[in-house]
Structures
1.
Amino acid sequence: MPDWKSLKDKAMAAVNSAAQEVDHQLTLTNLRSQVTQAQAELDKAYQQLGQAVYPSLSQGQSLDPQFVGVAPAVAHIDILRQRLQSAQQALRDEDPVSRTPCPSCGALVDAGDKFCGQCGHGMR
């Protein structure tokens, strides 16, 4: 006759293990979403900076770093870059083996990928 307590303990251990894995995957999904959102915000900030300086540069004018719109945009980009780096570090801390940052754009890429899905940079 089977040992019901032992079977129950094994079943509970399996359920607990599965619940922990689901929780871990949800955490990873949340962190990946944060990285993606931070990267999108940074990309938008770079675009806004370009839009602020392009008219002057296209007319051959040089830009003073204090040019209206440039200094606040650069400060905002610095904040967004830090936020992206923090989100990437949190993801690496949670899942250190499977994803690495792209050396070109900083997006997290699966360790086995040959190219970055964001910018196309070669990973090997």
2.
Amino acid sequence: MKKTSKTLTVGLMAQAAGINVEAIRFYQRKGLMPLPERAYGRIRRYTDADLDRVRFIKASQRLGFSLAEVAELLKLDDGMHCEEAREIAEHKLLDVREKLADLQRIERALDQLVAQCGSAHNAVKCPLISALHESSEYLTKSL
């Protein structure tokens, strides 16, 4: 995206970052974004650095980082803490791999249930519905 050459209102910054104003205010309440000073009787103005920070936050979230993790990454954003940032990313990668494994187990269980539904013509009970009723037994074995 193109950078601005002047300061922005919160609305224009939100628009430039592709988010809404409430997201910026939320980031400020969480301590991820500084609250710009406001000259007496004037509105707050945001800089290119503020816009870059919002974009950093959004890019981090798209990679699955929580806001707490984003806050940690922001603290390391001086170019001198690559190893610490790498550790955070490695931790996130492990989380993603665990979630993928869980999703694959869920996929296998659903695949079996759907196949049972397809083969249960004229059955009194639907195998899928029955399995969900008995979820503590069936799904724990499948997962």
3.
Amino acid sequence: MLVAGPAHAAEAVPAAPDPALEARVHKLAAELRCLVCQNQSLADSNADLAVDLKNQVREQLRAGRSERDVLDYMTERYGDFVLYRPPVKASTLLLWGGPLLLLLIGALLYWRSLRASQAVPAAQAMSAEDAARADRLLRGADETPPPGR
């Protein structure tokens, strides 16, 4: 234990004086994406920018703005990327329709491959002459010289 370095822990966040406000902040922070993290919400992130954005949300709610007002402000400032559930509009249409489009393309390719495999003609039976020639070739007794000699 003496060899181990001291533990580095973050300071505890003081208990909120207004638990209802903190619940609203947490609810909104869960709907907003951290702009510097890999797919984390503001509520889940400890990045400096996420903490600043949570403080902005807290200050705006404390000033009397509604949740919708705060979301609109964040969207105006950072774009639809900041929302975990962006609105359906022309700029986000591919985001919403992309999975369905990929599913349809995959089904079409699967259907075409099935059709192509059914269209392959069945192998024809060998004639007696071809079977005899194959047998001679396998035994090395073919009387015809190979091409090129």
4.
Amino acid sequence: MNVNPWAAPKAREIRRVLVSLDERIAQACDIAEDSGDPNMVTLHHTELNKLRAHVFLHGQRAGTYGIFYEYPHPVPGILESEENVPLPKVLESLALHFDA
């Protein structure tokens, strides 16, 4: 990962996701340029910049996250977003998305 998660200008819950990434996931993705939104972070694959995942708090129940996935090219039938996901499932989904 290209950024110190503790120093990221993000909401505490978003930093919690970043520090919870295990070594495999952290090596497979980087944090994209900051959008300025403390309630969202965009991660991209270290080798495929267009393979991204946006983790956000907007509109989610307390203690859960939303994830929106981006792929280099459209993939029919692939889930593009998840809502109200607990942290362990977020980590599982990110590992699968980035194939870590």
